Amino acid sequence: MKLPVKLDIIPILECIFEIRFETNSPVDVNVGLIYKEFSKKYFSNPIPINQTSPNEIVIGAEPKYISKQQMSSIDGKFLLRYGQNVISLHLLTDYEKFNDFNNQIKSVLETLKNIDVVTSITRIGLRYIDFFSKEQITNYDFNLLNAEFKIGGFGPGEKISFTTTLQQKEANHQIQFFRALEINHKGTIKTGDLFDIDSFLDNPTMQLEEISNTVPRIHEEQKIIFFNTIGEKLVKLMGPTYE
Description:
- The chain is of the alpha+beta class.
- The chain has one domain (13-238).
- The chain is built from 3 helices and 11 strands.
- It has helices at 29-38, 98-115, 208-237, and strands at 6-7, 12-22, 47-48, 69-72, 78-82, 86-91, 120-132, 160-167, 172-185, 188-202, 240-241.
- The strands form 2 sheets. Strands 3-4-5-6-2-7-10-9-8 form a 9-stranded antiparallel β-sheet, covered by helices on one side.
- Helix 2 runs antiparallel to helix 3 (208-237).
- The protein is globular.
């Protein structure tokens, strides 16, 4: 299917870039080093992360890859989370275009390189969480999705949770789908269908500076999966613009 370059209605709840790495630094030293270097660009008061919070979702992460602190960017657009072996960038404001997010990813990678604590990269990930509801999209219906859910000949029930991983050329893509899910987004309770794609490379043989060229390729592959899954009927309801 032809991919749009823009949507009038953007269903993105959150987008996240994450890098997990090995290091020779003593335990918890990197937390302080990352804070010191990034505080030149981010607020200087780090906030501890409550790991028991239901909003703290980490896919397949060992304890050492779980963030310990976070800082908001001065302009309020981004959140930086970090720990001894991990750093992630989260977009806090409404999503506009990938280039804006990617430019900030490049800045994070350049700053992390200056700290010089990464000995090898164990995972890079680009994750988009989208949410579809009738309140946001007029005439939205679950059946518009280009997906079938059947068990033993029976159609989908009232609630569905589904997880799969697709292995593609540029990355692996772990897809999670939840139908009729109630969420708390920025203090507002919403009910709808959540579509979560975590696109990742495990143990990539590349340096930090090479990641900047890899992320856009992963994003393009991720877009193909996303738009082909939601289908042309739903895309039409969201006001697509094509080149």
